[in-house]
From TrEMBL:
Gene3D superfamilies: 1.25.50.20, 2.60.40.1910, Neutral Protease Domain 2, tricorn interacting facor f3 domain. CDD domains: M1_APN-Q_like (cd09601). GO terms for cellular component: cytosol; extracellular space; membrane; nucleus. Its EC number is 3.4.11.-. Its cofactor is Zn(2+). It comes from Salmo salar (Atlantic salmon). The active site is at residue 368. InterPro entries: Aminopeptidase_N-like_N (IPR045357), Aminopeptidase_N-like_N_sf (IPR042097), ERAP1-like_C_dom (IPR024571), M1_APN-typ (IPR034016), Peptidase_M1 (IPR001930), Peptidase_M1_aminopeptidases (IPR050344), Peptidase_M1_dom (IPR014782), Peptidase_M4/M1_CTD_sf (IPR027268). Residues 593-913 form the ERAP1-like C-terminal domain. Pfam families: ERAP1_C, Peptidase_M1, Peptidase_M1_N. This is Aminopeptidase. Zn(2+) binds at residues 367, 371, 390.
Length: 939
């Protein structure tokens, strides 16, 4: 779990913790991909797929070329022997391959591996073995060409390669992960992370998702270590040359892509269960912590049959293991049959884990298990279709959690967590279409972003709503059956859903996946007798205001409409397929409000006429609008204010209407937007006034909730109170941070008791208390916090502390936190959130964090090797600036310090900085006046 300032953040990208907003920086250095040959070319519908422009002066990369298919693998016989002391490994590959076309060369992917020998034995060739005479490494392309003295003839054969590699410390490929034994001894496990393109760092292979083969894996490991891989163990015998080693052999896998292969060698305990459909499920934990695997086990055991039934396709392997890995870059990885997780995404301690951790574990387990079907059984043909994997899993994880934990009201949380984040990012000029042509690994890394995940999930949610659950499931079932053990592209899914529903799915969906952005729906109304006439039009919404140009794109927009008579029920559905239309709703009395997009399902923003908006506002105060719609309305208006379409003062007035709000998610979204505003106003000299506004808004709900949890709150599922526990943490943290005196005093009192061991803080109160005391604390507070960090046995507690350290105010202490971020005490993947916490906490923190990133760029870049964590770090460090010249500074820094996987992120950040600056210039005075007037006694 990642919580940044009280808001959950997916690990591969960043949510709105700081203002996001636009300017165009033309620095796309990637080549034009029109030259790429795709193995499968699908006829596209009316919308052309966008490619990256090539407009600037940066050096061009050679065009990316996919592997030739004249030789391809059928089965990999792979034996690996890791050395956990020297951090090296030896490997032996015996791959059965098919030669399609006689050739004397084999081209494979290979990176950071030394090949010792390679040979080819033709099938039925009576012992004839052809030794390769040359290994030509093309390092930049991560390929090797093996040359043979004579042509390999069409037919089958065995390719044998002996090689060696390093167990690296970069959290990718075959790498080492550090852990301490219960007695404090430091040891290492050997683990893998292959997605997207790092299987090639563990063994030479055809590392493309469409080149599927079976795998027979053996591991040679110290006999006191656990050895796991995708399949169950079929043989375990002492190594003939060394009796301290065991050779562990695993069953043959189904045909699968290389990025889903995994192995783990280390010391672990486990808990085991059986799902009702007969699959053995184990959750592996660090030794001595098996109990902490129980919650994830319960979720997994419920989830497998849920998907089995939903897809009507059984899970195809005999077992599934879920394992917590100490050093882990992503949140979790769906390797087939051996899913790897960060410790914080899998382990739950009944006493020391907070409610949001439980919810996060449930979502992540739901997400990765969905991939076992959607991704693993049916795999995207190329990374361009990555969104199919990630968008779908990011949608269905909510369906699964809603099934397992109905009291989480998880779909409302979807809107705040994924839907609004996707809208924010996709409103930038530097966004990209969901389907995007990618080639080189750094481009692939780049699309593990909120567009693939959150926009992907949001448009699937809209599609599900448009089709209806019954036909959606029918289509999903036929898609999975038709493409199981094969690969598919986006159009293949549309075909199946079109067949199942009889609706024009490809046409509707292409408008959402092939062009970037989304529309703003502009609505006005007129009463004619008993009828309400709506005038509806669409324009592209941009973070800098609506698109007013000539060639404005259009979307096929499923629009639903409800009225005040029954706010939860859709009265009318239309498909808007033109720039504007007029709709008549019969039998609506003049006193009734009309609302577009009930449930906030359609992926668009709405601009109501002032009359329509006026009529909706009482529904916020009297709670007759659904929570998700109260949230959606507030979020739309906030976004319109950032785009300069309405005054921010209007939004502040609207926020005050939420004073009676009872719903956690509505508060959470509002609180996040206020955080954005507060960060923006930290550039002014009236920052204190917005803190006062926050205190006033949150005080009534704070008083109502109090500090003590009600009976049953925060306890395991079914006990209720989950959302109350989340709300209390949110509100107390917000009040404490904003300097609300009674909250600060109580937080200090409770913190003291906690530290002295008199009264341990409940897990749900720790984040808000830590945040409050640090924000208003001194060097003694920081030292106490660092001591708590050292003593913490659970990674969840360490992360909780790491994320709030940046709240400390004194400049010298901020520096101390930044130094701590790069110390041995912080896991490599967590450094990013410590630095991000500093940048997001204060004006001084923002400057100090950016300077720190610049000063330590080499180390940081080297540490993350250009993976997605570097994008996250950049975004967290610079997105909050609101001065034009900072955009220029950031641009220029990254022109001389390349981060290929973060190019688009850098452009988005620069765009955001300029948008912030424009927003501040435009609205700061009015906001200041409003905040002053609000406090003035009435005349
Ligand atoms: N397939 C991804 C893991 C991944 C992410 C691999 C980035 C390579 C690069 C996995 O299914 C995933 O999406 N993990 C998420 C957590 C999930 C609950 C959204 C993550 O790591 O953030
Ligand atoms: Zn995923």
């Amino acid at each position: 779990m990642l919580l940044v300032l009280g808001r959950r953040v997916l690990l591969s990208f960043v949510k709105r913790v700081i203002p996001q907003d636009p300017v165009l920086l033309s620095n796309p250095i990637l080549q034009d991909f029109r030259t790429i040959k795709f193995r499968v070319i699908h006829s596209s519908t009316v919308f052309a797929s966008a490619t990256r422009q090539n407009t600037d002066t940066m050096p061009e990369r050679r065009p990316f070329v996919r592997l030739p298919t004249d030789v391809y693998p059928v089965n990999y016989g792979l034996c690996l022997k890791p050395d956990l002391i020297d951090f090296t490994f030896e490997g032996k590959l015996e791959a059965i391959v098919k030669v399609n076309l006689a050739t004397n060369q084999i081209v494979m992917n290979c990176a950071d591996i030394d090949i010792i020998t390679a040979s080819f034995v033709p099938e039925g060739g009576e012992g004839e073995e052809i030794n390769a005479t040359g290994f030509n490494y093309q390092n930049e392309d991560e390929k090797v060409t093996l040359s043979f003295p004579s042509a390999l003839q069409k037919g089958s054969g065995t390719l044998k390669i002996d090689f060696v590699g390093e167990l690296n410390d970069k959290m990718k490929g075959f790498y080492r992960s550090k852990y301490a034994t219960p007695t404090g001894e430091i040891r290492y496990a050997a683990v893998t992370q292959f997605e997207a393109t790092d299987a090639r760092r563990a063994f030479p292979c055809w590392d493309e998702p469409a080149i599927k083969a079976t795998f027979d894996i053996s591991l040679i490991v110290p006999k006191d270590r656990v050895a796991l891989s995708n399949m169950n163990v079929i043989d375990r015998k002492p190594h003939p040359e060394d009796d301290s080693l065991l050779e562990v052999k695993f069953a043959t896998t189904p045909i699968m892509s290389t990025y889903l292969v995994a192995f783990v060698i280390g010391e672990y305990d486990f808990v085991e269960g059986q799902s009702s459909d007969g699959v053995t499920v184990r959750v592996y934990t660090p030794t001595g912590k098996a109990e902490q695997g129980k919650f994830a086990l319960e979720v997994a055991v419920k989830t497998l049959p849920f998907y089995n039934e939903y897809f009507n396709v059984p899970y195809p392997l005999p077992k599934i293991d879920l394992i917590a890995i100490a050093d882990f870059a992503a949140g979790a990885m769906e390797n087939w049959g051996l899913v790897t997780y960060r410790e914080t995404a899998l382990l739950i301690d009944p006493k020391n884990s907070c409610s949001s951790s439980r919810q996060w574990v449930a979502l992540v387990v739901g997400h990765e298990l969905a991939h076992q079907w959607f991704g693993n059984l049916v795999t995207m043909e190329w990374w361009t279709h990555l969104w199919l994997n990630e968008g779908f899993a990011s949608w269905i994880e909510y369906l699964c959690v809603d099934h397992c934990f109905p009291d989480y009201d998880i779909w409302t949380q979807f809107v705040s967590a994924d839907y609004t984040r996707a809208l924010d990012l996709d409103a930038l000029d530097n966004s990209h279409p969901i389907e995007v042509n990618v080639g080189h690994p750094s481009e692939v890394d780049e699309i593990f972003d909120a567009i693939s995940y959150s926009k992907g999930a949001s448009v699937i949610r809209m599609l599900h709503n448009y089709i209806g659950d019954k036909d959606f499931r029918k289509g999903m079932h036929s898609y999975l059956l038709k493409f199981q053990h094969k690969n598919a592209a986006t159009e293949d899914l549309w075909d199946c859903l079109e067949q199942a529903s009889g609706k024009p799915i490809a046409l509707v969906m292409s408008s959402w996946t092939k062009q970037m952005g989304f529309p703003i729906i502009v609505v006005d109304q007129e009463q004619q007798g008993d009828d309400r006439i709506l005038k509806i039009s669409q324009k592209k919404f941009c973070a800098s205001g609506p698109h007013n140009g000539e060639d404005c794109p259009n979307w096929m927009v499923p629009i639903s409409i409800c009225t005040g008579e029954d706010p939860g029920c859709t009265k009318l559905k239309v498909l808007l397929d033109s720039p504007e239309t007029t709709i008549t709703i019969n039998n609506v009395s003049p006193d009734q409000w009309v609302k577009i997009n009930p449930g906030t399902v359609g992926f668009y923003r709405i601009q109501y006429s002032s009359g329509m908006l006026e009529s909706l506002l009482p529904g916020i105060r009297d709670l007759t609008l659904l929570p998700v719609d109260r949230l959606g309305l507030q979020n739309d208006l906030f976004s319109l204010s950032r785009a300069g379409m309405i005054s921010t003062v209007e939004v502040l007035k609207l926020m005050e209407a939420f004073v009676n709000e009872p719903n956690y998610t509505v508060w959470s979204d509002l609180s996040c937007n206020l955080g954005v505003l507060s960060s923006l106003l930290s550039h002014t000299d009236f920052h204190e006034e917005i803190q006062e506004f926050i205190r006033d808004l949150f005080t009534p709900i704070g008083l109502k909730l109090g500090w003590e949890c009600k009976q049953g709150e925060g306890e395991p599922p079914g006990a209720g109170g989950h959302l109350d526990a989340l709300l209390r943490g949110l509100v107390l943290g917000k009040l404490g941070k904003a300097g609300h005196k009674p909250t600060l005093e109580e937080a200090r009192r409770r913190f003291k008791d906690h530290v002295e061991g008199k009264q341990i803080l409940s897990a749900d109160l720790r984040s808000p208390v830590y945040l409050t005391v640090l924000k208003h604390g001194d060097s003694a507070t920081l030292d106490t916090m660092l001591k708590l960090h050292k003593q913490a046995d659970m990674q969840e507690e360490k992360n909780r502390i790491e994320r709030v350290l940046g709240a400390i105010s004194a400049p010298d202490l901020i520096q101390k936190v930044l130094t701590f971020a790069l110390s041995e005490d912080v896991r490599p993947q967590d450094t990013v959130s410590v630095i991000g916490g500093v940048a997001g906490s204060s004006k001084h923190g923002r400057k100090a964090a950016w300077k720190f990133v610049k000063d330590n760029w080499e180390e940081l870049h080297n540490r993350y090797q250009g993976g997605f964590l570097i994008s996250r770090l950049i975004k967290l460090s610079v997105d909050g600036f609101a001065i034009d010249k900072m955009a220029a500074e950031v641009k220029s820094f990254f022109e001389s310090h390349h981060a290929p996987a973060a190019e688009r992120t850098v452009q988005q950040c620069c765009e955001n900085i300029l948008l912030n600056a424009a927003w501040l210039k435009r609205d700061a005075d009015d906001i200041h006046q409003y905040l002053l007037k609000r406090k003035a006694p009435p005349v």
